[in-house]
Amino acid sequence: MEEKHTFSMWYFVIATVLLLAFQVLWTTSQQIETIPFSQFETMLHDGTFSEVMVADKYVQGTLKTPGEKGEKYALAVRVDGDMARMLNDSGVKFSGLIESTWLKDVLSWVVPIILFFVLWQFLLRRMNSSQGLGSFMSIGQSKAKIFVEKDIKVTFDDVAGVDEAKEELREVVAFLKDPKGFGRLGAHVPKGILLVGPPGTGKTLLARAMAGEANVAFFSINGSEFVEMFVGVGAARVRDLFQQARQNAPCIIFIDELDALGRARGIASVTGGNDEKEQTLNQLLSELDGFDPSSGVVLLAATNRPEILDPALLRSGRFDLQIVVDRPDKNGRTAILNVHLNKVTLGTDVVAADIAALTPGFTGADLANLVNEAAMLATRRSAVQVSMADFTAAIERIIAGPEKRNKLLNVIERKTVAYHEMGHALVAMSLPHADPIKKISIIPRGIGALGYTIQQPIEDRYLMTRTELECKMAVLMGGRAAELLTFGEISTGAADDLQKATDIARAMVTLYGMDKSGTGRLCRAAFQPAGGARRSPHRTSCQRGNRGRDRPVRAASGQFGLRAGIKTAHRTPGLSSNRRGAALEPRDPHQRRSGGVRH
Fold first, then answer.
1. Which among 5, 20, 148, 516 has most CB atoms closer than 10 A?
2. In CATH terms, is domain 330-400 a member of 1.10.8.60?
3. How deeply is 593 buried, as exposed, middle or buried, from its count of CB atoms within 10 A (0-12, 13-18, 19+)?
4. CA angle at residue 558 from 554 to 563, to 5 degrees?
5. CA 214, CA 176: separation in Å to the nearest integer?
6. Rounded to whole angstroms, what are the CA distances from 283 to 142, 233, 277?
7. C-alpha distance from residue 359 to each of 73, 337, 352, 398, 451 (Å)
8. HEC string for 314-332
């Protein structure tokens, strides 16, 4: 009420001032009579005026006796003296005329102001569009992209291979569609839902499908968009985002790459740059604490690095539900391929299950890329259909890189690569726990790979024994052993093999406790310190505390692998040695090796 009263008082004050000004102008106009300059001269000669005031363009005389209408002043526009005498001699009634210049005066003030305002708006928009300082008037506003119901065409039918995750999200969709029916027994939807999984497994697609199924508004924003140069801006954007969401309820808030916003606190930055991130995270925690689940607003987030998130963000009451979106198994890959294969023209020999068997470790994004790559290869050869051969070539292209048929090798290098690759193949064929060989090639591919050997796993594996890991190291070192047996020396072609074998040996010793001392658990505990902060898995406390701990790693990777490769080679007559390349394993296409000789 006080605010409205103050507003009305301002109107009263303005009206009073205008009324007084109008009264002054009206009174003044009634007391002054405008007359021609010739009449003014006559009245001047007659002694009518008691006082005369002269200005640049007019003269004003005070009448000794008020006129018939009560006017006290007479006003006349001045005329040049020579012209006045000439006109006076002719007996003509004359008066001056003041040229009106109000439009020119107004434009001289208004036009510069308008130009300055337009230029200022243009510069602010340019800064805002270029992600610079942005518009200062909207710097604290949320940058979330808002999609209304009609904009989202994705449903759960477009998502395959993650059936468990879809079932979990269907309950949330049921709550958004019917909050009263869903909560009739006192249940409420989780405050926050966190999708966890490797890149490319379909976390963002699941979020969009959830919004499409529920037919509600969808707020999408990346975690990095909350962080700005100015401290406090991120917290303001969090508040603005949740305020907009409550106004548009029911709706879904989706924060992608949550790790950019919710990184664990406790490690102070040297430059103090963590202040902005910590304030933004604290504001998000505060919003989640005051979040009413019955309001119809669901917070959905996705990350592929859950280990670095702040523990306060993951506790119950904030992100209550954590859904793992893992790499699909063979049945899941088949379902995903069926979705993407409907968009291309297929040959009669293409079977989704066969392609799924050739792609262990592929995510949904990898499979979509595979189908597109196969269609492009078929288009290049002017085919009318996409055949199975195109998919096989696309798999090799994704795993090992594009072929480089124009890359010329001399005779010695070609022979070395051939023996190297054959060493991988023979060791793999001789060991009972090694994956079968799919293809051997000495055609250079990718960056630096002069040849490659592809092994095709028979099935998806989730556990591996020590014997199986030792067989993997033996296969990796088989190429190096073949070079040593055939040529009596080794080349630089086994660089990637050595790196892979070392990684396996380090994991066996420091993580799995498979060395003779069995101290792996000590190193694993040091890998995850208190306070939520994580250190790099490549620098454990065992390695930092005692360099002698590296000896089991060197023994496992170098001596065992090389001995196993040489023993296998001695048991195989006519061993050919191979390459400056490596045994390529399509188990995880994101960790595949592309490589041959490293200079």
1. 148
2. yes
3. buried
4. 135
5. 6
6. 14, 11, 10
7. 104, 11, 11, 10, 20
8. HCCCCCCEEEECCCCCHHH
Q: Which among 487, 475, 477 has a CA at the least distance from the CA of 419?
A: 487
Residue 267 CA to residue 325 CA, distance in Å, equals 29
Active site residues: 421
Sheet holding 452-455: strands in order across? 437-441, 452-455, 582-584
**pLDDT (tens digit, 0 to 9) for every residue of the chain, 599 residues total?**
344 444 567 777 788 888 777 766 666 655 677 777 777 777 777 777 777 777 777 777 777 777 666 677 777 777 776 666 655 655 556 556 555 666 777 777 888 888 888 888 887 777 665 544 444 445 445 555 555 555 677 888 888 888 888 888 888 888 777 777 777 777 777 878 999 999 988 888 888 888 888 888 888 888 887 776 666 777 888 888 888 888 887 788 888 888 888 888 765 444 444 567 788 888 888 888 766 666 678 888 999 888 888 888 888 878 888 899 989 988 999 999 999 999 899 999 999 999 998 888 899 999 999 999 999 999 998 999 999 999 999 998 888 888 887 777 888 888 999 999 999 999 999 998 888 888 888 888 876 678 888 887 877 788 889 999 999 999 999 999 999 999 988 888 888 899 999 999 999 988 888 876 655 554 544 334 333 444 444 444 454 444 555 555 555 555 555 555 555 555 554 444 333 333 444 344 433 333 333 33
Two domains, one topology: 145-323 and 330-400: no
Residues 388-394: contacts with CB under 8 Å, at least 24 apart: 388/347, 388/349, 388/350, 388/351, 388/354, 388/355, 391/350, 391/355, 391/358, 392/358, 394/370
Specify the residue for token string 């700005």: 228
Q: How far is CA 301 from CA 207, 253, 260, in A?
A: 8, 8, 12
| Domains in the chain: boundaries | 2-90, 145-323, 330-400, 411-591
Q: How far is CA 32 from CA 38, 60, 109, 511, in A?
A: 17, 9, 31, 104
The domain covering 411-591 belongs, at the CATH homologous superfamily level, to Peptidase M41 (1.20.58.760)
The single-letter code of the amino acid at 244 is Q
SS3 62: strand
Q: CA-to-CA distance for 361 and 329, rounded, in angstroms?
A: 8
**What is d(CA 321, CA 297) in angstroms, rounded to the nearest whole number?**
15
How many CB atoms neighbour CB 51 within 10 A? 10
Within 8 A by CB and 6+ apart from 519, the residues are 513, 542, 549
Contact 338, 356 (CB under 8 A): no
Burial class (CB in 10 A: 0-12, 13-18, 19+), 517: exposed
Short-list 443, 512, 442, 433, CA closest to 475: 433
Prediction pTM value: 0.64
Q: How many whole angstroms separate alpha carbon 233 and alpha carbon 220?
A: 18
Residue matched to tokens 């949904």: 364
Q: Exposure of 516 by Cβ count < 10 A (0-12 exposed, 13-18 middle, 19+ buried)?
A: exposed
